[in-house]
Amino acid sequence: MLRLLLPVLVLLGVVGVTVVADRPMPRADFTFINRGDVTTLDLAVMSWQQDFRIARFLFEGLTKNDIFTDDYEVKPAAAERWDVSPDGLVYTFHLREGARWSNGEPLLASDFAYAWRRLLLPDNAGDYAKLVTVIKGAGDFYAWRTRALSDFAKATDVPDRAEAGRALWRETLARFDRTVGITAVDDRTLRVELERPTPYFLDLTSFAAFYPTYRPLVEAYESIDPRTARVRTKPDWTKPPKLVCNGPFVLSVWRFKRDMRFEQNPHYWNRESLAVRTIAIPSVQDGNAQVMAFRTGAVDWVSDVTPGYRADILAAKRAFYREHQVEYDRLVALGLDAQDIDRALPSDPRKNIHAFPAFGTYFYNFNCLPRLPDGRDNPMADRRVRRALAMAIDKDSLVRNVRRGGEPVARTLIPPNSIAGYTSPKGLGYDPAAARALLAEAGYPGGKGLGPVEILFNKDGGHDLIAQAIARDWTENLGVAVLLSMKEVKVFRDDLKNANFMTSRASWFGDYGDPTTFLNLNETDDGNNDRKYSSPVFDALLQKARDEPDATKRLAVLTEAERLIVEEDLPLVPLFTYEQVYLFDADKLSGISPHPRQEQNMYLMDILGDGRGLDVPRSMRRRSAVAAE
Amino acid sequence: MLGLIARRLLQLPLILGAIYTLTLALAWAVPGNPLENPEGRRPPPEVVEAMQAQYNLDSFWNFYSSYLHSASGVKWVQENLSGEAARERAAADAAGVAPPERRVFDLGPSLQYRDRNVNEIVAAALPVSVTVGGAAILLALVVGLSAGVVGAVRPNSLADVSTLAVALIGISQPTFVIGTVLQLVFAVWLLWFAVGEWGHVSNLVLPAVTLSLPFAAYIARLTRMGMLDCMSADFIRTARAKGVSETRVLLRHALKNAFLPVLSYLGPATALAMTGSFVVERVFTVPGMGQHFVNAVQNKDLFLIIGVVLIFATMLILFNLAVDVMYRWIDPRIE
Question: What is the least distance, in Å, from the CA of B148 to any CA of chain A?
Answer without folding.
Answer: 16
